[in-house]
Specification:
Blueprint lengths: L1 H18 L12 H12 L10 H12 L13 H15 L5 H14 L27 H22 L8 H9 L34 E3 L5 E3 L3 H13 L7 H12 L14 H15 L3 E3 L5 E3 H12 L18 H16 L3
Antiparallel strand pairs: 1-2, 3-4
Helix pairs in contact: 1-12, 2-3, 2-4, 2-12, 4-5, 4-6, 5-6, 6-8, 8-9, 8-10, 10-12
């Protein structure tokens, strides 16, 4: 199915070419992350159709216009999220001219980590939406995109300069991840579940789950694990250099296998479905896992299933769209970028 995937990528890129605004952004100038994801999708095209395209030039010109004096890449809010996604787009361009904004953005993200000494409590070590503004709230989604940007930018800086990059407190980051995992062996918070339906998976932050909670017969309230954020947990552990045989990694991998779905985001239905597929493919590829083991012990080859699903869901104009609009998935530019990045990761392994 590789050729069908390549054809779908071409159609998706043509859709994005048709929806870029005159100032170079996609969807809105307020959130450069959407533009950054589109540029990242363009850079990942195996046929490099945007390599010399004015679409690419306009997009990066807009992205650089969002660089702030503090090194962040954002316009008005969601500073860390926008900066982290934008940093990945700048890295994907592989342009020497982008070195300065890459290093400044990296430093901004490092400074955004909630210090264990800052009174952050259960949020210590994590990173939230706002960046370095005094906020002491962090979550798995923002921490993931920050860890991803730091992981790849560190590799680029070491490669290009031969010098180590200023870095995160990775030990504190791992401790934050543990406080979001439904795993009694490492997480002692009262909401942690020992129910097989939840154990090993992840929740949104150390105090809440987007999938809600369940109360058992004894009145204990347990937070429910769910799919997309559990893949965020697996990928975050990988970026933090935990190995496949680490009990924390094994636990989340087992939960993901037992709850494997290609039709929905487990625990969330269609909410965040394309982000779920996007994280599934990135995480399992990074983990070197060619198969999942489902609840019945069957081994499932996940790549053809995800590819089949994305080919089925592509619209006539080349886009993808989620009827459930939560987490911006009513925006075809955002969802098409997710789908393209997912497809590109798949076809590179075919």
């Amino acid at each position: 199915m590789r050729q069908e995937g390549m054809t779908a990528i071409g159609r998706g890129l043509r859709f994005l070419e048709s929806t870029q605004l005159t100032n170079g952004c996609w969807s809105t100038a307020d959130h450069p992350s959407v533009t950054a994801l589109a540029l990242f999708a363009g850079a990942g095209d195996p046929e490099r159709r945007w390599a010399a395209s004015p679409v690419r030039e306009r997009g990066y010109r807009f992205l650089l216009s969002c660089v702030q004096t503090n090194g962040g890449i954002y316009v008005r809010d969601l500073a860390n999220y926008n900066t982290s996604i934008s940093l990945m787009a700048l890295l994907s361009a592989d342009e020497a001219a982008f070195r300065a904004p890459i290093e400044a953005a990296r430093d901004f993200i490092v400074r955004s980590q909630i210090s264990p000494d800052a009174g952050g409590g259960v949020y210590a070590g994590g990173i939230g939406y706002a960046g370095k503004d005094g906020s002491l709230h962090a979550d798995m989604n923002n921490t993931l995109v920050a860890l991803e940007a730091l992981h790849f930018s560190r590799q680029a800086i070491v490669r290009d300069t031969g010098k180590p990059a200023d870095d995160l407190d990775w030990k504190a980051a791992v401790a934050f991840l543990e406080r979001c995992q439904n795993l009694p062996a490492v997480n002692r918070q009262p909401w942690v579940s020992s129910d097989p339906a939840n154990i090993g998976g992840f929740v949104y932050d150390p105090e809440s789950s987007k999938a809600g909670s369940v109360t058992n017969a004894n009145g204990k309230v347990a937070l429910r694990s769910y799919g997309s954020i559990s893949y965020a947990g697996l990928l975050s552990y990988i970026y933090a250099d935990l190995k496949a045989d680490d009990p924390r990694v094994r636990a989340v991998a087992e939960w993901l296998g037992k709850h494997a779905s290609f039709e929905e985001n487990p625990g969330m239905g269609q909410q965040g479905y394309y982000y779920y597929l996007h994280l599934m493919v990135k995480a399992l590829t990074a983990a070197g896992m060619d198969e999942l083991t489902d609840a019945k012990g069957h081994r499932v080859a996940w790549r053809p299933e995800v590819l089949r699903r994305l080919l089925e869901l592509q619209k006539g104009d080349g886009s993808w769209l989620n009827a459930s609009g939560r987490w911006w998935e009513s925006d075809p530019n955002l969802v098409t970028a997710y789908a393209l990045i997912t497809l590109e990761t798949l076809v590179r392994r075919e």
